[in-house]
Amino acid sequence: MQRLFTITHLTQEFDVTTRTLRFYEAQGLVTPQRRGRQRLYTPADRTRIKLILRGKRLGFSLAEIKEMIEMYGKAPGEAGQLRLLMTKIADRRAELLEKRRDIELTLAELDDVEEGCRSRMAELGFELAPGAAESET
To answer: What is the CATH number of domain 1-60?
Structure first.
């Protein structure tokens, strides 16, 4: 007999809300069995939830996650799924590296502007501690 998981069990295990799991169901990402009003999740549903949450942590959209998960059971199967995942990882990595460069440039520009402010304050006869902002009233 296959072990089934209740929505309560999975919300506690994965620290998500019941609303989240119902949303994943509405999106066709999981298909729990019904026993009256109770939702019962299979080990495959549990694995899908784990993959969905990992995908979300990595910054993938639900549409991307769904595409990758659905590939598993269809041709080209797991190999195609893994190729797609590797492509998505490379794309996500490139996106994050670009964001990192943008952040580093912005931080450098903030440093330059702050240094200009400090220099001007010094010219005006005011000294500020490094990293401290002073408000004039």
So the answer is: 1.10.1660.10
Instruction: Please give the helix or strand (H or E) that residue 78 lies within, else none.
Output: helix 77-123
- Confirm if 59 and 92 have CB atoms less than 8 A apart: yes
* 3-class SS of residue 97: helix
Ordered by start, the domain boundaries in the chain are 1-60, 72-125
Give how far Cα 125 sits from Cα of 9, 24, 31, Å: 65, 61, 69
List the pLDDT tens digit at each of the 137 positions of the chain: 679 999 999 999 999 999 999 999 999 999 999 999 999 999 999 999 999 999 999 999 999 999 888 877 777 778 888 888 899 999 999 999 999 999 999 999 999 999 999 999 999 998 777 666 655 44
Q: Which of 67, 57, 101 is nearest to 87 (CA)?
A: 67
Identity of the residue numbered 130: P
